[in-house]
Design brief:
151 residues; 9-stranded antiparallel β-sheet; binds zinc ion; 3-stranded antiparallel β-sheet; mainly beta; Glucose Permease (Domain IIA); single chain; 2 helices
């Protein structure tokens, strides 16, 4: 079961004008019970804790059909996992919070991949909203989880 189906999205993936302009490369969610999920099954590659008001975030690296993806969650109050840990897409990896630049408690979750030439990425980009930036592509989280569960 995709845990993000139960969360209320507060700011969608895509171009936005308020309160911050530019492309929003992830989805924002109002957490339930302050839970932040991994988003992909794999290994925790970063679990960072700022000490001067910086954003706390968790990055999980997972592989689907020979393509490597990174799922990042930001603004966490507390990270519950450490680098090197194995997690499932629905593992609670952090307590949601409002660290870093934000107007309140929310989850900012994004999925990216650097394997721009993989056939699977090309297929995904034709199926779900995506955005290329430099050497990587951002994909919409909720659609991505559905596809990765069904894979
Ligand atoms: Zn966001």
């Amino acid at each position: 079961m995709n845990p993000y189906l139960n969360l209320h999205p507060t700011s969608p993936f895509g171009e936005r004008t308020n309160p911050i302009s530019g492309f929003h490369p992830g989805c924002d969610y109002r957490p339930v019970d302050k839970k932040t999920y991994a988003g992909i099954s794999g290994i925790v590659t970063r679990a960072e804790r700022g000490s001067h008001g910086e954003v706390f975030f968790v990055q999980v690296q997972g592989k689907i059909k020979d393509t490597i993806f990174y799922a990042n969650s930001y603004h966490n109050e507390n990270n519950f996992v450490q680098k090197g840990e194995s997690v499932s897409f629905d593992t609670v990896v952090a307590e949601s919070g409002a660290t870093g630049i934000t107007t309140g408690i929310h989850i900012h979750h994004e999925i990216r991949s650097y394997n721009l030439s993989s056939p699977f990425i090309k297929k995904l980009m034709g199926l779900i909203p995506s955005h290329i930036e430099g050497n990587h592509v951002f994909l919409t989280l909720i659609n991505f989880i559905n596809i990765s569960i069904v894979k």
